Amino acid sequence: MARGGYRKGAGRKREYQEPVQKILVGLPQSVLQKLDDFAQQRDLSRPKAIALLLEKNHEEGSVLASSTTVEAKPEAIPKPVLPKPKPKSSQKLLDELRALKESLK
């Protein structure tokens, strides 16, 4: 008896009519609690609740909720501190390269 393979109507039904991209999102606990409350009140999963909120926000052209608005502050993102390379003169660098070339012969 054959098993598996393609059968019309078999398998998991699609949630959306387009490809789905999985992402990882970090949220403050208070915002996550609001999201969970929103989703639970509407019997939605977290991803569906986020999609609904984003669609609603896009349609209205407004902020989702003024109390949960998060603005990125430039000073909150530290700039990496890289060590400054010591400048070498071109002649010194050429001399080092020549010495290396000679040592490899």
What does this structure look like?
The protein is mainly alpha-helical and 105 residues long. The chain has a domain at 25-62: Arc Repressor Mutant. It is 41% helix and 0% strand. It has three helices and no strands. α1 (29-41) crosses α2 (46-60). It starts with 28 loop residues before the first helix and ends with a helix. The model has no long low-confidence stretch (mean pLDDT 78).
**Helix proportion:** 40-55%
H/E element order: HHH
What would the CATH topology of the domain at 25-62 be? Arc Repressor Mutant
Largest sheet features = none
Secondary structure tally: strands: 0
Span between termini: 71 Å
Strand content: under 5%
Secondary-structure map with pairings?
Blueprint: H1 29-41, H2 46-60, H3 90-104
Helix pairs in contact: 1-2
Gist?
The protein contains three helices and no strands. With 105 residues, the chain is mainly alpha-helical.
